[in-house]
Amino acid sequence: MNMELSGRRKPTPDKSQRAPEEERDYDPSVGIGLNAAIVAVSDNEPVALVVRAEPDSIGATDMLPYGPFNPRAHRTLESGLRSWVQDQTGLELGYAEQLYTFADRGRQPEPGDTAPHFISIGYLALTQAIGHHGLTDGLWRSWYQYFPWEDWRRGRPEIIARDIEPRLKAWAEKSSGVATSQPTIARADRARICFGLDGTAWDEEKVLERFELLYEAGLAEEALRDGRPTAREWTDRPKLGLPMQADHRRILATAISRTRAKIKYRPVVFELMPDEFTLYELQKTVEAILGPHLHKQNFRRLVEGAGLVEPTGDVKTRTGGRPAKLFRFRREVLLERPAPGVRVSAPPSRS
Amino acid sequence: MNMELSGRRKPTPDKSQRAPEEERDYDPSVGIGLNAAIVAVSDNEPVALVVRAEPDSIGATDMLPYGPFNPRAHRTLESGLRSWVQDQTGLELGYAEQLYTFADRGRQPEPGDTAPHFISIGYLALTQAIGHHGLTDGLWRSWYQYFPWEDWRRGRPEIIARDIEPRLKAWAEKSSGVATSQPTIARADRARICFGLDGTAWDEEKVLERFELLYEAGLAEEALRDGRPTAREWTDRPKLGLPMQADHRRILATAISRTRAKIKYRPVVFELMPDEFTLYELQKTVEAILGPHLHKQNFRRLVEGAGLVEPTGDVKTRTGGRPAKLFRFRREVLLERPAPGVRVSAPPSRS
DNA sequence: CCACATATGCTCGATAAGAGCATATTTAGC
DNA sequence: GCTAAATATGCTCTTATCGAGCATATGTGG
């Protein structure tokens, strides 16, 4: 390959600032897709906004709202994303942040050297769960339908011990063939760490690692579609979550990872809440995302003590007991300290 | 724009999986650049590997190793990056992770609708500081040369009170003109939070936010180059750090942010260390990156207590005092708990 | 009016973190 | 060789934080 960037040896020409890029051999057959994982919590269920492919077409799967990045029409990646989401679903995004850029060859159907390549730039958006009215298209679907093993709200999900653990163990047995002198972590160890097997603690943030492991082991339907070698014996296996189009499930997994991580150190839960809410509703929203149950009194102390909320003065009655005070988010905290999140520690794992 | 993705309304054609992307209007004039912020610590100085443009050419600036992504030659983004770095500098990368994808129009010289657009995918690599031998090109340069206000190792850097604070205050005075009914944070507040003004605590992780603020205020040389409106009165101002080519300084800022954050919760310091090291050397490396001085005894307790290291049995003499035990990284921790980092808390800010 | 459910305030003990004291072992200078 | 200085290392003490439980307040439904 060329070395033209080694400016010290070989001076770049006059128009120095741009020059290097223009001189390179560059492949124009790369498309750039913007993908949005739009997350909300509706009735204590964390949901993502998906668009359905035609149900009766073969291989129809859900997909995230997405569209190509057009540098002429879009000033920034994020504005391009917002415009696509608006067009496809009618939703106007609030909070949004970039997640990751995916480009693995082979992570799309019909791979091959001749196929044009696509890069997916994934975004995470947090919003309130507005009803299906207001949406021109798309629907809210629980993210646990795509990742049932992530739902620990009622204890350790059965699917892990029943469907995942035995298959991962089998996959780990026939090790990767390649000599493993490398410092790569052994398959069995990866499985144990990712899924909390053999007494290892469950880390709710490892959503992406878990999905990647299942994909690699040929246990995600997308692996079959992509023609991965290990996927041949797959057909008789139970579905491990709903598949999605292209690499969208991977993007959604990244979104869940990020959401679970960020909720702990930045006040992002409030993007998911209505203007006024009770502390218990707030707690339930956090639990919907993180899984385990939290200690109610300590949660109160934490949230109030951090100055994240202020009482509105009103109360919410008909809660089945003593009326709950209503609170609102104190936006001012963003101006104070480096605004903390809802720090919670996982309870002793109930496996 | 088109709505062809709304599959529920308008069925996608037969080859359903690929179809939507191919039908879109997609602009092929987008180049994809891979940029590497390669970080090491040499003699207690955090350094990045940069390639110098010809010194006597006009506007010559440092740049990060980079090259275009070529989907035919590169299986993944990361492998493409490794290959570019190897070609340009002779360095073989170890640890690498993706940082962010930048694409703002206007964040490059000669912007305009006719100019081709480039997307920069930034990567962070951590490595040992090998000598300049072994490098075919490029040099290690302290990252504090690009961001002098980030160097808190000898207390609060003077440049903040002398050069930055007054200019940011002036910039905040003539507010953004646009009516600020929006919940956007006021300029003065942003400056205060980013740079720890008026008694606000310094957050060493806000490296990117600080640089973005300086750019926006027209105080970064790149802003002048990009023809930003506020940059007109800039010429008589002192340089605030060395500028870099294109948006490379922004990528480096992101890399520093990520490094500072990650070192606290993942054992990534060890990527920067030789195989054997003393605890004091380890501490000095952490301090080079994070800035403030740490309490030596507690640092020992923390690192040893977390099981991150094990003694080799040897000692290092001629340290100027009692010989220090040598340690090595216990790679096994990666197989145990979700492997913690070197948790450190900032000492009371010495402002 | 009572049983019950939820909301909310407060305390207690375990643990981890910040800070300092004390001791060990070397090098440098006389 | 002896001593001062420098660094390494172990231990203790205090304080902040967190998990957990008890107690009380104030509604709803029968």
What share of residues of chain A is helical?
25-40%
- Which residues of chain A sit in consecutive blocks of at least 5 with pLDDT less than 50? 1-27, 346-351
Query: Span between N and C termini of chain A?
Result: 53 Å
Number of helices of chain A: 9
Q: Oligomeric form of this entry?
A: homodimer
User: Rough shape of chain A?
Assistant: globular
Text of the CATH class of the largest domain in chain A: Alpha Beta
Highlighted features:
homodimer; 351 residues; alpha+beta; Nucleoside Triphosphate Pyrophosphohydrolase; Arc Repressor Mutant, subunit A; 7-stranded mixed β-sheet; 3-stranded antiparallel β-sheet; disordered C terminus; DNA-binding
Describe the structure.
The structure is a homodimer of 351-residue chains. Chain A folds into three domains: 30-144, Nucleoside Triphosphate Pyrophosphohydrolase (Alpha-Beta Complex); 155-241, no CATH class; 267-335, Winged helix-like DNA-binding domain superfamily/Winged helix DNA-binding domain (Arc Repressor Mutant, subunit A, Orthogonal Bundle), CATH 1.10.10.10. In chain A, strands 1, 2, 3, 4, 5, 6 and 7 form a seven-stranded mixed β-sheet that branches. Chain A has a three-stranded antiparallel β-sheet with strand order 8-10-9. Chain A contains nine helices and ten strands. The model of chain A is unreliable at 1-27 and 346-351 (pLDDT under 50). The first copy, chain A, is of the alpha+beta class and 351 residues long. In chain A, α4 runs antiparallel to α5 (207-216). The structure holds a DNA duplex (30 and 30 nucleotides).
